[in-house]
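Hey L., structure's done. Input below.
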Amino acid sequence: MAIAKSDSYSLGIVLFELFNIFSTEMERNHCLNDLRIHMKVQEQFSKFYPFETNIIEQLVAIETDKRPNVDELLINYGKEIQKKLNRQHHNTKQNIIEQLQEKLRDQDRRIQQLELELEKNKLEN
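Output:
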């Protein structure tokens, strides 16, 4: 059964609550009221959760036709996961490249040391 766009508003509120750690019940009520009134999350939240902020703000939009349906949410979430995996894969490749470059630099230094020792031994003999 598909979730109705009107139900997606509640999903946006629940997602916002799931991603937040409220110190007090008063803080929770204040943040939720801000979200309900302004349809925006706090700037601090959006810095930590930019993708989630976008989804939550779409889900709590006043106009129901602007709210994403479940299929749209899943597609967007899938794209975001793919981006994160690609970044992680790129970072892993980059780390391996940097480690290999460092190893090459170490080997070059060792070769230079050995060449100097060899020259020194030639001069002594």
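The chain has two domains: 1-68, 70-125. The chain is about 80% helix and 0% strand.

-- N.
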